[in-house]
Specification:
Blueprint: E1 2-6, E2 15-18, E3 32-41, H1 44-50, E4 64-65, E5 69-77, E6 89-92, E7 95-96, H2 101-104, E8 117-119, E9 123-124, E10 131-135, E11 139-142, H3 153-169, E12 180-184, H4 188-199, E13 203-208, H5 215-222, E14 226-229, H6 235-242, E15 245-250, H7 257-263, E16 265-273, H8 287-296, E17 300-303, H9 309-325, E18 336-339, H10 345-351, E19 360-363
Parallel strand pairs: 8-9, 12-13, 12-15, 13-14, 15-16, 16-17, 18-19
Antiparallel strand pairs: 1-2, 1-4, 3-5, 3-10, 3-19, 5-6, 6-11, 7-8
The structure holds beta-D-glucopyranose and zinc ion.
Amino acid sequence: MKAVAVFPGKAGSAHLAELSRPKISDVPGGRGVRVEVLRVGVDGTDREINDADYGEAPAGSPFLVLGHESLGRVVEVGPNVTELQPGDLAVAMVRRPGTSVYDAIGMQDFTTDDAYFERGISRLHGFLTEEYVDSADWIVKLPSTLSKVGVLLEPMTVVEKGIGQAFEAQRRLRVWRPRRAAVLGAGTIGLMATLVLRLRGLAVDTFALSPRPNTNATLVEATGARYVCGQDRNVVQAAEAEGGYDLVFECSGFSPLVFDGMRALAKNGVLVLSSITGGERKVDVPSDAINQSFVLGNKLMLGTVNAGRGDFEQGVRDLVQSEAAYPGWLEQLLTHPVRGLENWPMLFEALNGKKGVIKAFLEVCPS
Ligand code: BGC
Ligand code: ZN
């Protein structure tokens, strides 16, 4: 079967590869699930892998099959699978266990191993192909009502983990009741963070570069959040004018904003960092003032990557809730469909700065 693959370390090496069809017996213990791939979303990670800045092939393979944002339909299950059946809509988690104690208890998203295993990213083939087989342990079932937008679950889980961790950590405060949140960045992750924080009932200000009007601003405002163009007012100025934020979610991809996020926190506030910034940027910051406000204000900053099973399950619930609260909103994120694996180059066109792209995705089996 066909698959979109790269030679990791070789820039611009994306190509159509030939892959043998996986068998359900490839997974031990009768726990195998065979899934027909319907849609696969792409993001900055896929672009970085094709730019040879990131990514690793599985041991013994010259290439790595791309694709970690999947949506598929179960076609066959092993004898010891009770939680899924043929016909179910399914999304596979991305990371698989390594060797650390966290991996051993199903928390591989918190692994301390330096070498980690992520499908479509690191040491394991991804989902930009026709079918995959995996253990039911790593597959999440979706209701059939999510057949269009379910491909957004994986990026949604990145947000769910970050926000879930913020609430988990803030249990230190016993009575933490966040009211105001800032989201730094209005790309796919920023839009989804805005959505989830709105579903949790917070007042949200989402900061981005582009002046209004633009599609992302319209989507932010459709959730009842405020879209703030950073050129008019940055997050530090907003906090000075209207008070600090209880929760700041940084997902702009621009690391200097981390320090603005620190400066914009309210007392007892929490800053969540989710941008993967591979560069070597350096900035001058008011370190005494930032440190003092963190100390005197009992503030917290946490980094987050990947997502666990609970985050996937929360993501499913929030996708469903979003469809009820803001009907059609999620579908508007799916701006750039590409039909057929052989048309993969269009995915990279969309990823390389094409205007108006929120989410580009491949439709493997056009419906
Ligand atoms: C993926 C995560 C992954 C991270 C680091 C992101 O694009 O969505 O699942 O953990 O990259 O590889
Ligand atoms: Zn991703």
